[in-house]
Amino acid sequence: MTFEEIKALDQARIMNTYGRSNLCAVKGSGSRCTDINGKEYIDFTTGIGVNALGFCDPDWVKAVSEQAATLQHISNLYYTTPDVQLADTLCSRTGYAKAFFGNSGAEANEGAIKVARKYSFDKYGAGRDRIVTLVNSFHGRTVTTLAATGQDVFHNFFFPFTEGFVYAEANSLEALQKACDEKVCAVMIEFVQGEGGVVPLDAAYVKAVADFCAEHDLLLIADEVQTGVGRTGTLLASEQFGVHPDITTLAKGLGGGLPIGAVLVDKRLEKVMGASSHGSTFGGNPVVCAGANVVLSKLDETLLADVRRKGDKIRAALSKCSNVESVTGLGMMIGIALKDKTAADVREVCMQAGLLVLTAKTKIRLLPPLTISDEELEAGIKILCSVIDQ
After folding, report:
1. What is the DSSP letter of 268?
2. Residues paired with 249 in a beta bridge
3. Catalytic residue positions, numbered
4. How is residue 121 annotated by DSSP?
5. Is residue 172 packed enough to be buried (19+ CB in 10 Å), middle (13-18) or exposed (0-12)?
6. In the beta sheet, which residues pair with residue 187?
7. What is the mean pLDDT of the chain?
8. Residue 182: which of 248, 118, 125 has the closest Cα?
9. Which helix (H) or strand (E) holds 290?
10. CB–CB of 139/104 below 8 Å?
């Protein structure tokens, strides 16, 4: 099919829920992809933080292909090797006791919400079930995770939303304490509010929240769907904030390009969810977990240190752009506020120039492959800075 035929079929047969760019990707390798017309692009998006190792990493492709040719699915009624290996690696490297696998970040956050509410119900009985989230947060697009999201723009159309969420201003311990009455069982945070504009929380605030939660037996849930799996320069962003949440959720980069979500729980929560209390038909799928095992095997300290170095390199280059107002984020999760251009316009011109970038509210958002070469990183930065300052 021609590009025009593909677009026409898309418009005819796929729900119009995405604002697609005028690009049809057909193949990719490393940090570059090629469109249907043969044009090549440097990718600073990784499928919105998914392709942690870039496009079609050879080891990832080999593991996924071999697993698909051996056993593609069997269900959680039986044991399989890839998912127990993945759970063991995640727990060993993060200090958590147990893992649950689903298919997405929203699913992972739903799982975390269920764990928190059941823990509180088992210990305190009914009525202690509210969860405090932060203003400007984003936790998913299901009815429940939209309700958990602390942005009014998402609280529309799909009434009635799931009850039981309270919102507190980020970086205000007083606001959080005020929100935490006797009906609250947990607090859910993102260390960097990605969809909210790549806004990191203050480290002192995070530590104070963790201490407050521990003092009042409130579970601290960390939504690391976007910040986890090396994106910020450590396996979990929590490591840089000096806290160990009771529950951490992961997704995006964990699968390296295939759909997965994970809920990690601490030891005191390992028996909260029993048989039939939660489930997912495709959770722990052998093919997806085979890919995720490769992702984790490559995220050693050498690569994580390189993520931190490359993040600093990007920020240093952007600091020289006259049209950049500010740069936020951690590691290779970067938000760029512009002085007199819109993020949407910069994104479009960058694409025309052969660079793919993202937006987050009014900012340009960068999520390059963790494995991107310095040469490709520099080439992409050159395009970006040229577009920003032209």
Report:
1. G
2. 223, 263
3. 138, 223, 252
4. H
5. middle
6. 132, 220
7. 98
8. 125
9. helix 286-298
10. no
Instruction: Please provide the distance, in angstroms rounded to a whole number, between the alpha carbons at the two ends of the chain.
Output: 36
Kindly state the average pLDDT of the residues 216-225. Answer: 98
User: What is the side-by-side order of every strand in the sheet holding 358-360?
Assistant: 324-330, 333-338, 363-366, 358-360
Cβ neighbours for 343, distance < 8 A, ≥ 6 positions apart: 336, 359, 360, 361, 362, 363, 364
Residue owning tokens 């990707």: 25
Peptide bond into 200 cis (omega under 30): no
For residue 293, give the H/E element and its range. helix 286-298
Rounded distance between C-alpha atoms, residue 370 and residue 240, angstroms: 18
For residue 23, how many other CB atoms are within 10 A of its CB?
A: 15
Six token digits for residue 151 = 């942005």
Instruction: For residue 254, count other CB atoms closer than 10 A to its CB.
Output: 30
pTM greater than the 0.90 cutoff: yes
Structure tokens at 184: 């609250």
The tokens for 244 are 């160990």
Q: Which two tokens stand for residue 315?
A: 């920020």
> 371-387 burial by CB neighbour count: b if 16+ within 10 A, else e?
bbeeebbebbbebbbeb
Mean pLDDT value across residues 225-240: 98
- Three-state DSSP at 346 gives helix
Dihedral sign of CA atoms 20, 21, 23, 25 in order: negative
DSSP state of 200: E
User: How, if at all, do strands 363-366 and 333-338 pair?
Assistant: antiparallel
Residue 246, amino acid: D
pLDDT of residue 37: 97
